């Protein structure tokens, strides 16, 4: 084996934003597609009374059956495949013996590793019939992500992306969580750059073709402040207001953006039933 021919080619986080090669996009496409297919698979299972642990098991088995690895399992001591964050949980909710209930909104976040490449993806699910204010928050969150993605192209900056997200969400009288951000990814799960969901136009790193990162805004109905519970993972809104999140893994192309985690079945924004 020649140097560099490692079985699992790893890279290190070295403080720079990696510029990936054109052929690396195919690796991210495969990883992103599997992450989307995993969340597509869960759609019919998200029902009142389903245990969060069961959804985690379904995701883990799906990923392993497809010859991929669940990136979160054993990551920094985390022992599940997905994070399930409902209602006032902002992110990193831990599956367990608790069940989803009628009227909940829940984010399910999965990261898969396919041939060494990471696909990191999350969406909102409605459980049964959901109250109007929760449905509105979910809609604002998807639109905030869409506005952020829409400005991605070579020459734009990360500040432009954060600004587009923040300006929209705040105009809708929602607030942006600032304690967590998106991140570079590729062969590394969490890499440079930090992708803030707030910002000023023209500030921050300039986007270049070959950059891969996530955009994953967390939007609250109340104040932006969060705290992490004693389990060391679960982040909740301090004022217990509802929070929503959605996440895509993307690459900067010569002309714009490629969304690696687009749902082949068109289920990125699963229909949420109203009361
Ligand atoms: N998938 C999350 C993200 O968007 C990370 C989850 S933390 C973990 O970055 F411990 F669950 F992996
Ligand atoms: Co994620
Ligand atoms: Co992420």
Walk me through the structure.
The protein is of the alpha+beta class and 275 residues long. Helices cover 24% and strands 25% of the residues. It has four helices and 17 strands. It has helices spanning 24-42, 52-65, 132-150, 158-171, and strands spanning 69-70, 82-86, 89-91, 105-114, 117-126, 129-130, 175-176, 182-184, 191-195, 212-215, 218-220, 226-228, 235-237, 243-245, 248-252, 257-259, 273-274. The strands form six sheets. Strands 1, 2, 4 and 5 form a four-stranded antiparallel β-sheet that branches. A hairpin with a 4-residue loop joins strand 15 (248-252) and strand 16 (257-259). The termini are far apart. One cobalt (II) ion is lined by residues 109, 111, 120, 122, 247.
Write the layout of secondary structure elements.
Layout: H1 24-42, H2 52-65, E1 69-70, E2 82-86, E3 89-91, E4 105-114, E5 117-126, E6 129-130, H3 132-150, H4 158-171, E7 175-176, E8 182-184, E9 191-195, E10 212-215, E11 218-220, E12 226-228, E13 235-237, E14 243-245, E15 248-252, E16 257-259, E17 273-274
The protein binds 2-amino-4-trifluoromethylsulfanyl-butyric acid (MF3) and cobalt (II) ion (2 copies).
Bin the strand percentage. Answer: 15-25%
Unreliable stretches covering 5 or more consecutive residues:
none
Shape: globular
Helix content: 10-25%
On the 0 to 100 scale, the average pLDDT is 96
Provide key terms for this protein.
binds 2-amino-4-trifluoromethylsulfanyl-butyric acid, globular, single chain, 25% strand, 275 residues, three-stranded antiparallel β-sheet, four-stranded antiparallel β-sheet, alpha+beta, 17 strands, binds cobalt (II) ion, 4 helices
